[in-house]
Amino acid sequence: MENEEKNTGQEIQDAREYAECIINAVREPLVVLDGDLKIISVNRSFYDIFKVKPEATIGQLIYDLGNRQWDIPSLRELLENILPKSTSFDNFEIEHDFIGLGTRTMLLNARQILRASGKPNIILLAIEDITESKKILDGLHEEIRRLETLQREIAGREHVILELKRKVDELERRVLRRHF
Fold first, then answer.
1. How many helices (H) and strands (E) does the chain have?
2. CA dist 67 to 24, 73, 75, 99, 124, Å?
3. Alpha carbon 28 to chain centroid distance?
4. Helix (H) or strand (E) segment spanning residue 109
5. Which of 65, 87, 118, 162 sits at 20 to 30 Å (Cα–Cα) from 147?
6. What would you measure as the largest C-alpha separation in the chain, in angstroms?
7. CATH topology of domain 2-129
8. How far is CA 29 from CA 41, 44, 53, 134, in A?
9. Buried b vs exposed e over 127-144: b needs ≥16 C-beta within 10 Å?
10. So what's the pLDDT on residue 125?
11. Read out DSSP for 141-178?
12. Are the CB atoms for 126 and 29 separated by under 8 Å?
């Protein structure tokens, strides 16, 4: 019996270490929250990108993180209202100004992780910073609008050119009739 408990404890420890390795290997910031929205853990990417320290992160309510920078109304709505009803959300875009980082556009994905044996559920929140991609897309859309405007201007000028060419052809026919 004691051996079984020891093996089970080791298996649990191994599983925890395995999960932590996977979470730390992910390039996007990941946050694991308890049911009260307190931070259980975050991955290395989260620390690196958002410039926070473990001692100021673990155990904190997500909204209190980084001098309350994460107290974002749309994030609060997602975590407190939408997630409990649907257990997940995908590609929810938020834009927020972070001290030291500037304005960032992020896609949020979250999942409630249902746990066995009466343990409280946890929430996995994945954050993808799409700020640069969004800037590039906005630039491409602006270039498309500029090219469409140019195309309309050219189409308007094309009519003038065709009319001018018609007049030149008509003048050429008159001149040729006089000389021949």
1. 6, 5
2. 24, 15, 16, 9, 22
3. 10
4. strand 102-113
5. 162
6. 119
7. Beta-Lactamase (3.30.450)
8. 11, 7, 14, 18
9. bebbeeebeeeeeeeeee
10. 94
11. HHHHHHHHHHHHHHHHHHHHHHHHHHHHHHHHHHHHHH
12. yes
Residues 6+ apart with CB under 8 A from 12: none
Q: Do residues 37 and 61 lie in contact, with contact meaning Cβ atoms separated by under 8 Å?
A: yes
Q: Going by C-beta distance under 8 Å and a sequence separation of 6 or more, which residues neighbour residue 131? A: 103, 104, 105, 106
Q: Which two tokens stand for residue 141?
A: 């859309």
User: Minimal CA–CA distance to 100: which of 69, 54, 57, 132?
Assistant: 69
Under the phi-then-psi rule, with left for phi > 0, alpha for psi from -120 to 50, and beta for the rest, what region is 53?
beta
The one-digit pLDDT tens for each residue of the chain (180 residues) are 667 666 777 777 777 777 777 777 788 999 999 888 999 999 999 998 888 888 989 999 999 988 888 899 888 888 887 767 777 889 999 998 888 889 999 999 998 887 777 777 889 999 999 999 999 999 999 999 999 999 888 887 887 888 889 998 888 888 877 766
**Two tokens at 4?**
């079984």
